[in-house]
Amino acid sequence: MTPGCSEIEELAPELALGLLAGGERAGALGHLASCPACRTTVEELVRVAEALLLLGPEAEPPVGFEARVLDRLEREGRPPQPARPRWRRALVPAAAAAAVAAALVTGLVVGRSTERDPRFERQYIAALRTLGGTSLRAARLHDPGGRDVGEVFVYRGHPSWVFMDLSDPAAPSGGYRLELQGRDGAPVASDGFAMRNGSGYLGWPARAEMDRVGSVVVRDAQGVGRYNAQLPGLS
Amino acid sequence: MWDAPDDALVAGLGAGDADAAVALVRRFQRRIYGLALTIVGDPVTAEDVAQETFARAWRHAAAYDARRASVATWLLTIARNLSIDAVRLRRPEPLNPEALAALSLADRAQDPADQAVRESERSRVQGALARLPAEQRRALVLAAIGGRTAKEICETEGVPLGTAKTRIRAAMIKLRVDLESQGQEETDR
Ligand SMILES: [Zn+2]
Hints:
- The structure holds two protein chains of two kinds.
- Chain A is 34% helix and 25% strand.
- By secondary structure, chain A is an alpha+beta fold.
- Chain A has a four-stranded antiparallel sheet.
- In chain A, α2 crosses α3.
- By secondary structure, chain B is mostly helical.
- Chain B has two domains: 6-89, Orthogonal Bundle (Rna Polymerase Sigma Factor, Chain: A), CATH 1.10.1740.10; 97-188, Winged helix-like DNA-binding domain superfamily/Winged helix DNA-binding domain (Arc Repressor Mutant, subunit A, Orthogonal Bundle), CATH 1.10.10.10.
- In chain B, 74% of the residues lie in helices and 0% in strands.
- Chain B is built from nine helices and no strands.
- Chain B has helices at residues 6-14, 18-40, 43-60, 71-89, 97-103, 115-130, 134-144, 150-157, 161-188.
- In chain B, α1 crosses α2 (18-40), α3 packs across α4 and α6 (115-130) crosses α9.
- The longest helix of chain B has 28 residues, at 161-188.
- Chain B is flat.
- The interface between A and B is large, with 51 and 72 residues.
- Zinc ion (ZN) binds next to α1 and α3 of chain A.
């Protein structure tokens, strides 16, 4: 079900406060993709939520906290440079202007969605504003048991693209495919990606009519559907 | 390094500078841990959340954008979301809502680093919060600082769900208007 403006008005405070769970959050973000009025509302509430965090109480962390944190940072090593999605290579100069916009969105979501970086909502909103409210739909990926394993974004533009970020420690490594399906469940297009150490991601400039796409299925090397996501409808 | 501005520390963090990491942890650990403890309610989970907050900041420092949020806001938002996720996985002993609601108006220990700036911003928000009707203020503090959903607030406060939602929304809208008009006065001056 796609939430409309009245549902978003109802969800907006909790969305801005970071309190919405996966499914509701994805639905709300999907609506924001096509509704500038609701984006403005949420943006304003996000600012209020941020101001309130400054009033949070202070407390002395347990003894040795500082040393443990620094130890951990050292173990993580030097912070990684931002990932370069492989689809950038596939772009042709004619698509350059649109590619800049799409790259902006991808840059904002790469590696963040499964980690649920809190600035994501704001960046997403800012990106959509830059794009002029072009259709960008987001949905959570689930396994058959309903467990949340990641997020998928479907962007309609020139070029259109799909971005997926998946994390499931139980998934065997190997070649997987992401399949776009029409609202009737028929396959529309698909592309492969690799799963390693329980995580995989895909940035794909898909040549497909994105507005026809209603759901996404991720299949393993044997072609078995392991995860799926229902995209919010277009308003 | 110790009196470097917040954004300079984050820039140093993004470049893998260990001194910047030390300074950033010292400057923000009490606020990060304090917020985490408030939401999750137990010291072990709160420490996990606080550690993870700094690890995320370390990983994503290069993407930090000072035009969008202050460093304090950025870190506190990370800590809030991680805390809410941790609570979803394992709801601990319920925090006393009375204590939580009182928190926002209580004095706090001072950290000299950027005290003047922080205090002026804080006192603006605190003032705006104080002007809200008591039941709205309480619902908003439980949600925004305590990480409680409207459903949880309706259960602990013994009010209908719709009432809890309305209180949170009404409080946020009033606060927005109030903070905006204060900001306007400052630019007019
Ligand atoms: Zn709307």
